[in-house]
Amino acid sequence: MLTREKITAIQHDSNVCADIVGFDFDRYDERDIKEVRKYWLQYGVIRFKHTRITDDQQVKFSRHFGEFVIHPKQLQEGGHPSHPEILVISNSMKDGKPSGAMGNSEATWHTDTWFYERPPAGAILRAVKVPPSGGDTYFLSTYIAYETLPVALKAAIDGRQIFFQNVYDKTGKIRLGKAEPISRDFREWSGVVHPLVRTHGDTGRKALYLGGTSEGAWIVGMSIEESNAILAELWDHTTNGGDVFVQSWDEGDIMMWDNRCTMHRRDSFDPSFVRVMHRTTTSGERPI
To answer: Where are the beta strands (DSSP E) in the chain?
Structure first.
Protein backbone atom coordinates (compact mmCIF):
# COMPACT_ATOMS: atom_id res chain seq x y z
CA MET A 1 0.00 0.00 0.00
CA LEU A 2 1.39 3.40 -1.01
CA THR A 3 1.94 5.93 1.76
CA ARG A 4 0.06 9.19 1.25
CA GLU A 5 1.92 12.40 1.95
CA LYS A 6 0.21 14.70 4.45
CA ILE A 7 -1.13 17.88 2.87
CA THR A 8 0.15 20.97 4.64
CA ALA A 9 0.25 24.72 4.07
CA ILE A 10 3.32 26.91 4.50
CA GLN A 11 2.34 30.53 5.09
CA HIS A 12 4.31 33.37 3.53
CA ASP A 13 5.23 36.63 5.26
CA SER A 14 2.04 38.05 3.81
CA ASN A 15 -1.20 37.08 5.56
CA VAL A 16 -2.83 36.39 2.21
CA CYS A 17 -0.99 33.36 0.78
CA ALA A 18 0.31 29.90 1.65
CA ASP A 19 2.06 27.18 -0.37
CA ILE A 20 0.29 23.83 -0.50
CA VAL A 21 2.65 20.91 -0.01
CA GLY A 22 1.80 17.22 -0.44
CA PHE A 23 -1.14 17.44 -2.83
CA ASP A 24 -0.83 15.00 -5.76
CA PHE A 25 -2.76 16.08 -8.85
CA ASP A 26 -2.40 12.57 -10.25
CA ARG A 27 -3.89 10.84 -7.23
CA TYR A 28 -6.25 12.48 -4.78
CA ASP A 29 -9.61 11.87 -3.13
CA GLU A 30 -12.34 13.90 -1.43
CA ARG A 31 -10.35 14.03 1.82
CA ASP A 32 -7.52 15.74 -0.04
CA ILE A 33 -9.91 18.21 -1.68
CA LYS A 34 -11.37 18.96 1.75
CA GLU A 35 -7.88 19.81 3.04
CA VAL A 36 -7.16 22.08 0.07
CA ARG A 37 -10.51 23.81 0.52
CA LYS A 38 -9.78 24.35 4.22
CA TYR A 39 -6.52 26.13 3.45
CA TRP A 40 -8.09 28.10 0.57
CA LEU A 41 -10.74 29.48 2.96
CA GLN A 42 -8.17 30.12 5.66
CA TYR A 43 -5.63 32.07 3.59
CA GLY A 44 -7.68 33.43 0.68
CA VAL A 45 -4.84 32.60 -1.74
CA ILE A 46 -2.95 29.32 -2.04
CA ARG A 47 -0.15 28.30 -4.38
CA PHE A 48 0.95 25.00 -5.91
CA LYS A 49 4.54 25.29 -7.12
CA HIS A 50 5.95 23.69 -10.28
CA THR A 51 3.04 21.42 -11.12
CA ARG A 52 3.08 19.52 -14.38
CA ILE A 53 -0.59 19.00 -15.06
CA THR A 54 -2.69 18.99 -18.22
CA ASP A 55 -5.72 21.09 -19.14
CA ASP A 56 -7.88 18.02 -18.44
CA GLN A 57 -6.44 17.77 -14.93
CA GLN A 58 -7.00 21.46 -14.26
CA VAL A 59 -10.64 21.19 -15.31
CA LYS A 60 -11.14 18.04 -13.24
CA PHE A 61 -9.57 19.62 -10.15
CA SER A 62 -11.51 22.87 -10.53
CA ARG A 63 -14.83 21.05 -10.75
CA HIS A 64 -14.51 20.06 -7.08
CA PHE A 65 -14.92 23.71 -6.07
CA GLY A 66 -18.16 24.59 -7.85
CA GLU A 67 -19.88 25.03 -11.17
CA PHE A 68 -17.83 26.72 -13.86
CA VAL A 69 -18.29 30.40 -14.67
CA ILE A 70 -17.71 31.51 -18.25
CA HIS A 71 -15.88 34.83 -18.45
CA PRO A 72 -17.04 37.15 -21.28
CA LYS A 73 -13.56 36.90 -22.83
CA GLN A 74 -14.03 33.13 -23.20
CA LEU A 75 -16.66 33.90 -25.83
CA GLN A 76 -14.21 36.15 -27.64
CA GLU A 77 -10.42 36.03 -27.96
CA GLY A 78 -9.90 34.15 -24.67
CA GLY A 79 -11.64 30.94 -25.66
CA HIS A 80 -9.79 27.62 -25.39
CA PRO A 81 -9.88 25.45 -28.54
CA SER A 82 -11.03 22.27 -26.76
CA HIS A 83 -11.90 23.17 -23.15
CA PRO A 84 -14.73 25.70 -22.88
CA GLU A 85 -14.15 25.88 -19.11
CA ILE A 86 -10.73 27.50 -19.60
CA LEU A 87 -10.03 31.19 -20.15
CA VAL A 88 -6.78 31.65 -22.07
CA ILE A 89 -4.85 34.70 -20.88
CA SER A 90 -2.14 35.39 -23.41
CA ASN A 91 -0.44 38.05 -25.51
CA SER A 92 0.28 35.67 -28.40
CA MET A 93 -1.17 36.22 -31.86
CA LYS A 94 -2.57 33.79 -34.44
CA ASP A 95 -3.39 34.77 -38.03
CA GLY A 96 -2.94 38.41 -37.02
CA LYS A 97 -5.48 38.20 -34.21
CA PRO A 98 -5.10 37.81 -30.42
CA SER A 99 -5.20 34.15 -29.37
CA GLY A 100 -5.86 35.04 -25.75
CA ALA A 101 -7.24 37.75 -23.49
CA MET A 102 -5.50 40.71 -21.78
CA GLY A 103 -2.33 41.04 -23.85
CA ASN A 104 0.81 42.25 -22.03
CA SER A 105 -0.45 45.44 -20.38
CA GLU A 106 -0.76 46.10 -16.67
CA ALA A 107 -3.93 44.89 -14.96
CA THR A 108 -4.83 47.17 -12.05
CA TRP A 109 -6.30 46.05 -8.71
CA HIS A 110 -9.64 44.28 -9.07
CA THR A 111 -11.95 41.50 -8.01
CA ASP A 112 -12.91 39.22 -10.90
CA THR A 113 -16.16 40.06 -12.73
CA TRP A 114 -17.44 42.28 -9.93
CA PHE A 115 -20.14 43.49 -12.34
CA TYR A 116 -21.99 40.13 -12.20
CA GLU A 117 -25.07 39.57 -10.03
CA ARG A 118 -23.23 36.53 -8.66
CA PRO A 119 -19.48 37.13 -8.94
CA PRO A 120 -17.35 33.97 -8.98
CA ALA A 121 -16.09 32.48 -5.74
CA GLY A 122 -12.88 30.92 -6.95
CA ALA A 123 -10.22 31.27 -9.63
CA ILE A 124 -7.48 28.80 -10.49
CA LEU A 125 -4.69 30.22 -12.66
CA ARG A 126 -1.94 28.02 -14.14
CA ALA A 127 1.22 29.25 -15.83
CA VAL A 128 1.71 27.51 -19.18
CA LYS A 129 4.43 29.79 -20.55
CA VAL A 130 6.04 32.77 -18.81
CA PRO A 131 8.45 35.56 -19.82
CA PRO A 132 11.87 35.77 -18.16
CA SER A 133 10.68 38.77 -16.14
CA GLY A 134 7.53 40.85 -15.63
CA GLY A 135 3.94 39.74 -15.46
CA ASP A 136 4.08 39.29 -11.68
CA THR A 137 0.71 39.01 -9.92
CA TYR A 138 -0.06 40.72 -6.60
CA PHE A 139 -2.68 39.68 -4.05
CA LEU A 140 -4.21 41.37 -1.00
CA SER A 141 -6.88 40.49 1.54
CA THR A 142 -10.11 42.50 1.63
CA TYR A 143 -10.82 40.95 5.04
CA ILE A 144 -7.79 42.82 6.33
CA ALA A 145 -8.74 45.93 4.37
CA TYR A 146 -12.11 46.03 6.16
CA GLU A 147 -10.81 45.06 9.59
CA THR A 148 -8.13 47.79 9.57
CA LEU A 149 -10.40 50.64 8.43
CA PRO A 150 -10.36 53.76 10.62
CA VAL A 151 -13.37 53.77 12.95
CA ALA A 152 -15.01 56.80 11.32
CA LEU A 153 -14.63 55.41 7.81
CA LYS A 154 -15.99 52.01 8.86
CA ALA A 155 -19.02 53.75 10.38
CA ALA A 156 -19.56 55.82 7.22
CA ILE A 157 -19.97 52.71 5.06
CA ASP A 158 -21.91 50.58 7.53
CA GLY A 159 -24.92 49.06 5.75
CA ARG A 160 -24.15 50.88 2.49
CA GLN A 161 -24.53 49.45 -1.00
CA ILE A 162 -22.38 50.10 -4.05
CA PHE A 163 -23.55 50.36 -7.66
CA PHE A 164 -21.26 49.16 -10.48
CA GLN A 165 -22.06 49.99 -14.09
CA ASN A 166 -21.59 46.97 -16.34
CA VAL A 167 -21.71 48.60 -19.79
CA TYR A 168 -18.02 49.48 -20.30
CA ASP A 169 -14.98 47.43 -19.30
CA LYS A 170 -11.85 48.93 -17.73
CA THR A 171 -10.35 49.67 -21.15
CA GLY A 172 -13.40 51.70 -22.21
CA LYS A 173 -14.79 49.04 -24.56
CA ILE A 174 -18.48 48.16 -24.51
CA ARG A 175 -19.01 44.76 -22.91
CA LEU A 176 -20.41 41.86 -24.89
CA GLY A 177 -24.20 42.15 -25.19
CA LYS A 178 -24.34 45.78 -24.01
CA ALA A 179 -25.35 48.87 -25.99
CA GLU A 180 -23.95 52.39 -25.80
CA PRO A 181 -25.97 54.28 -23.15
CA ILE A 182 -28.01 57.37 -23.97
CA SER A 183 -27.56 59.09 -20.61
CA ARG A 184 -24.24 60.61 -19.54
CA ASP A 185 -25.02 59.76 -15.90
CA PHE A 186 -23.62 56.27 -15.33
CA ARG A 187 -26.01 55.76 -12.40
CA GLU A 188 -28.76 55.42 -15.02
CA TRP A 189 -26.89 52.74 -16.98
CA SER A 190 -27.19 48.99 -16.72
CA GLY A 191 -25.40 47.76 -13.63
CA VAL A 192 -25.50 45.78 -10.39
CA VAL A 193 -25.84 46.75 -6.74
CA HIS A 194 -23.82 44.92 -4.09
CA PRO A 195 -23.10 45.51 -0.41
CA LEU A 196 -20.00 47.64 0.10
CA VAL A 197 -19.10 45.29 2.94
CA ARG A 198 -19.95 41.69 2.09
CA THR A 199 -20.25 38.70 4.41
CA HIS A 200 -18.37 35.67 3.14
CA GLY A 201 -20.74 32.79 2.39
CA ASP A 202 -18.47 30.13 3.92
CA THR A 203 -16.46 31.83 6.66
CA GLY A 204 -18.94 34.49 7.80
CA ARG A 205 -16.15 37.09 7.91
CA LYS A 206 -16.72 40.59 6.57
CA ALA A 207 -14.73 41.90 3.62
CA LEU A 208 -14.61 45.21 1.78
CA TYR A 209 -16.06 44.95 -1.73
CA LEU A 210 -14.73 47.58 -4.13
CA GLY A 211 -15.01 45.71 -7.44
CA GLY A 212 -12.51 46.70 -10.08
CA THR A 213 -12.50 50.47 -10.39
CA SER A 214 -13.82 53.58 -8.69
CA GLU A 215 -14.95 54.88 -12.08
CA GLY A 216 -18.56 53.92 -12.73
CA ALA A 217 -19.03 53.04 -9.06
CA TRP A 218 -21.38 54.89 -6.71
CA ILE A 219 -22.28 54.44 -3.06
CA VAL A 220 -26.05 54.33 -3.28
CA GLY A 221 -27.86 57.23 -1.62
CA MET A 222 -24.87 59.56 -1.48
CA SER A 223 -24.10 62.51 -3.67
CA ILE A 224 -21.52 61.79 -6.36
CA GLU A 225 -19.05 64.08 -4.59
CA GLU A 226 -19.41 62.35 -1.23
CA SER A 227 -19.35 58.91 -2.82
CA ASN A 228 -16.22 59.69 -4.83
CA ALA A 229 -14.42 61.03 -1.75
CA ILE A 230 -15.20 57.96 0.35
CA LEU A 231 -14.37 55.54 -2.46
CA ALA A 232 -11.01 57.29 -2.94
CA GLU A 233 -10.26 56.80 0.77
CA LEU A 234 -11.30 53.14 0.63
CA TRP A 235 -9.19 52.42 -2.45
CA ASP A 236 -6.16 54.17 -0.99
CA HIS A 237 -6.51 52.30 2.30
CA THR A 238 -6.98 48.93 0.59
CA THR A 239 -4.29 49.06 -2.08
CA ASN A 240 -1.60 50.87 -0.10
CA GLY A 241 -1.78 48.74 3.03
CA GLY A 242 1.52 46.98 2.43
CA ASP A 243 0.37 43.43 3.28
CA VAL A 244 0.63 42.11 -0.28
CA PHE A 245 1.84 38.80 -1.68
CA VAL A 246 3.78 38.95 -4.97
CA GLN A 247 3.76 35.92 -7.26
CA SER A 248 6.74 35.76 -9.62
CA TRP A 249 5.71 32.99 -11.98
CA ASP A 250 7.48 29.80 -12.99
CA GLU A 251 5.95 27.47 -15.54
CA GLY A 252 3.59 25.05 -13.85
CA ASP A 253 2.79 27.33 -10.90
CA ILE A 254 -0.88 27.46 -9.92
CA MET A 255 -2.44 30.27 -7.91
CA MET A 256 -5.90 29.64 -6.48
CA TRP A 257 -7.68 32.56 -4.88
CA ASP A 258 -10.98 33.26 -3.15
CA ASN A 259 -12.56 36.02 -5.19
CA ARG A 260 -14.90 36.94 -2.33
CA CYS A 261 -12.17 38.20 0.01
CA THR A 262 -9.17 39.13 -2.14
CA MET A 263 -8.10 41.52 -4.88
CA HIS A 264 -5.26 41.11 -7.36
CA ARG A 265 -3.35 42.94 -10.06
CA ARG A 266 -0.68 42.18 -12.66
CA ASP A 267 2.49 43.90 -13.85
CA SER A 268 3.02 44.55 -17.54
CA PHE A 269 5.79 42.69 -19.38
CA ASP A 270 7.90 42.86 -22.54
CA PRO A 271 5.61 42.12 -25.52
CA SER A 272 8.45 40.40 -27.37
CA PHE A 273 8.02 37.47 -24.94
CA VAL A 274 4.94 35.24 -24.86
CA ARG A 275 3.02 34.68 -21.64
CA VAL A 276 0.26 32.03 -21.59
CA MET A 277 -1.95 31.34 -18.58
CA HIS A 278 -4.97 29.04 -18.29
CA ARG A 279 -7.68 30.05 -15.84
CA THR A 280 -10.71 28.21 -14.57
CA THR A 281 -13.35 30.01 -12.54
CA THR A 282 -16.01 28.65 -10.20
CA SER A 283 -19.36 30.07 -9.20
CA GLY A 284 -20.16 31.99 -6.04
CA GLU A 285 -23.12 33.29 -4.10
CA ARG A 286 -24.75 36.68 -4.53
CA PRO A 287 -22.95 39.05 -2.13
CA ILE A 288 -24.83 39.75 1.10
So the answer is: 8-11, 18-21, 45-48, 87-90, 93-94, 97-98, 101-102, 107-110, 122-129, 137-141, 161-165, 191-195, 197-199, 206-208, 217-219, 245-247, 254-258, 262-266, 276-282
